[in-house]
Write a structure and sequence with these properties.
Shape: globular
Largest sheet: 2 strands, antiparallel
Structural class: alpha+beta
Helix content: 40-55%
CATH class of the largest domain: Mainly Alpha
Radius of gyration: 18 Å
Strand order of the largest sheet: 1-2
CATH topology of the largest domain: 434 Repressor (Amino-terminal Domain)
CATH architecture of the largest domain: Orthogonal Bundle
CATH superfamily of the largest domain: lambda repressor-like DNA-binding domains
Distance between the termini: 45 Å
Number of helices: 6
Order of helices and strands: HHHHHHEE
Length: about 150
């Protein structure tokens, strides 16, 4: 058994039961964004959180253990994503990455935005011309240090 097999079981059970990630997150008591990432194998759950997920997705004790193992982060199968939705994020970084970098450096100095001390909020934004996807990301600024 592998973490990938556990992830596939979670997804297939979610589909079979008609569950929503927001409902799963409510049961765990954390954001839908973080819980979804954890269920997809990108975050480490603690024992209590893993127990909730195991119960919801009918996981065995051995499968539950995989939820508490620190994962290999980065779940894309190719360096350039082929899924159209994920590719658009790649495209955003390709087009606006230098703008993000320039504006962050101008505002904060030489450093990076953390993906560890990070949060995200994804919402539907109603719009007469067609609903929009609104994603707010917030990461701690980490300056480069001299030594």
């Amino acid at each position: 058994m592998s973490r990938l097999e556990v992830t596939e079981k979670i997804i297939s059970t979610k589909v079979a039961k008609g569950m929503k990630w927001s409902d799963v997150a409510d049961k765990v008591g954390l954001s839908k964004e973080w819980v979804t990432a954890a269920c997809l194998g990108q975050m480490t759950l603690n024992a209590e959180q893993a127990g909730v997920i195991a119960g919801l997705f009918e996981l065995s004790e051995a499968e539950k253990q995989w939820l508490m193992v620190v994962p290999y982060k980065g779940s894309l199968p190719t360096s350039v994503p082929t899924d159209p939705l994920i590719y658009r994020f790649y495209e955003l970084v390709s087009v606006y990455g230098t703008t993000f970098k320039e504006l962050i450096h101008e505002e904060f100095g030489d450093g990076i935005m953390s993906a560890i001390d990070f949060k995200m909020d994804l919402k539907r934004e109603p719009n007469a011309a067609g609903d929009r996807v609104s994603i707010a990301m917030s990461g701690k600024f980490l300056p480069y240090k001299t030594y």
